[in-house]
Amino acid sequence: MSAGEALEGPDGALRCPWALSTEDYITYHDDEWGRPVHGDDALFERLSLEAFQSGLSWITILRRRTGFRSAFAGFRIAKVAAFTDTDRERLLADAGIIRNRAKIDATLANARVLAEWAPGDLDELIWSHAPDPAGRPAPKTLTDVPAVTPESTALSKALKKRGLRFVGPTTAYALMQACGLVDDHLATCVARRA
After folding, report:
1. Catalytic residue among 25, 33, 45, 50
2. Which of 28, 32, 117, 127 is catalytic?
3. Catalytic residue check, 124
């Protein structure tokens, strides 16, 4: 077996190796990661969490997701766009989230920008960058999974052009993976879509 190939989980099923370090990861991997996500608020949440994850491990964000949802009004764009300086100070003091000033400010600014978009615009913009699945062979090992693609670079540029922050090509690709625009489950992984 090569490094980075699917590994047997506690139930005997093969999974992407990154998913096996904690029970939280197994559940996230099996039930969420790579599954299509639609809706502006749902995509705003994923985009925000991917930005908060930048420079950290995903498990750090995953374990604080309930705290993030509570702190950011369920990531409802209209509600977050209305946050005041008092809300910003509350977020900076909230131990249930990552208290990074730049990431908090970017999330608030992004909500204000997105509140001006027509309903469905964020969903349409993000999903317009999904690559043709027929042109993407299933990765056999983790080394076959890119960190950035031409599509994620284009998505990053499109989001930045429309005024969004903390949406670089790597963050955009992580969003694409998490929200099912691409299926980067390994070829032999139990969670790979048929």
Report:
1. 50
2. 28
3. no
Distance CA(170)–CA(84), nearest Å, equals: 30
Give pTM, 2 decimals: 0.95
Q: For Cα atoms 150, 155, 156, give the angle at the middle one, nearest 5 degrees.
A: 100
28 included as an active-site residue: yes
pLDDT digits (tens, 9 = 90+) for 95-151: 999 999 999 999 999 999 999 999 999 999 999 999 998 888 999 999 999 999 999
58 is catalytic: yes
Buried b (16+ CB within 10 A) or exposed e, 140-154: ebbeebeeebebbbe
- Write phi, then psi, for 8 (nearest 5 degrees): -75, 130
Task: Give the integer Cα–Cα distance in Å for 18 and 15.
Answer: 8
Structure tokens at 140: 């056999």
Token pair 């978009």 is found at 117
Which of 18, 58, 117, 127 is catalytic? The answer is 58
